[in-house]
Design brief:
This protein is an alpha+beta fold. It has helices at residues 2-25, 70-92, 139-149, 165-190, 213-219; strands at 41-52, 56-67, 96-109, 120-133, 153-160, 194-204, 232-244.
Length: 245
């Protein structure tokens, strides 16, 4: 009996001594896979343009009047503006629209000298009128009609496209081909092989071609006024990112 107790006690001591070692090892963690290598890529940007004949025009002209009093100046300007709008609407015959805006009234001062302060000698009123039309062939006649009715300044004449979808698609196609050509040339120069396209993006917007106001004002001096619009240029930029094999 005494020998049994001694052997049991030795077994308990040995078991207890083994516990700290087991705890020190902790739970078994799964092996981590090696980190993935970052993709090697080539990014290029291609550019393309498409040209189209404009089918929409925005003509902005002004009526400027001068008078001694503010009321007289405003009334004179209002009468001329009504005449100009009415004449333009008659010329358009429903092929566009006319609206007014940008009205202003300023005092005019005498020249200041050392002996006197500037004084108000009169007033100047300005009223701008905008015409939007798809009848490009009417523009010359519209300018002549407006000047005959009382308009005395052309601010701008801009051309645009009512629908630039076809030109935009053409520009994007050209820009994409340009980007692909650049990527192939760059890969050949670096001695690498192009893989799949990782991403692609595009930016495109039309650029209206304005006619200089000074040129229009000079042309308006004779009738009929010739108006020959430039082509609209629609640019596009395409960005391509290729993976390198």
């Amino acid at each position: 009996m005494k020998l049994w107790i001694t052997m049991a006690t030795a077994s308990i001591i040995l078991f207890a001594a083994a516990l700290p070692a087991a705890r020190a090892q902790g739970p078994m963690m799964p092996a981590q896979p090696p980190s993935a290598q970052p993709l090697r890529t080539i990014e290029v940007r291609g550019h393309g343009e498409a040209h189209a004949t404009p089918d929409l025009a925005f003509l902005n002209l002004a009526i400027e009047t001068h008078a001694v009093t503010a009321q007289e100046c405003a009334n004179l300007n209002a009468d001329l503006a009504q005449k100009v709008v009415k004449a333009l609407e008659g010329k358009l015959q429903g092929k566009g629209r006319v609206w007014t805006g940008g009205y202003s009234l300023y005092p005019e001062y005498s020249n200041q000298t050392e002996q006197s302060k500037p004084t108000i000698v009169g007033y100047r009123a300005e009223n701008s009128i905008t015409i939007q039309t798809g009848a490009i062939d009417l523009l010359g006649g519209l300018i002549d009609t407006a000047i005959a009715a009382g308009a005395n300044r052309i601010n701008f004449l801009n051309f645009a496209l009512q629908d630039d979808g076809h030109a935009r698609s053409e520009a994007i196609t050209k820009a994409s081909k340009d980007a692909q050509t650049q990527a192939q040339a760059l890969a050949a120069a670096l001695g690498v092989k192009l893989g799949r396209i990782a991403s692609a993006s595009t930016i495109s917007e039309p650029r209206p071609m304005p006619v200089e106001p000074r040129m229009m004002a000079m042309a308006a001096a004779s009738a009929p006024t010739p108006v020959q619009p430039n082509e609209i240029t629609v640019p596009a930029t395409v960005s391509l990112v290729y993976e390198i094999e």
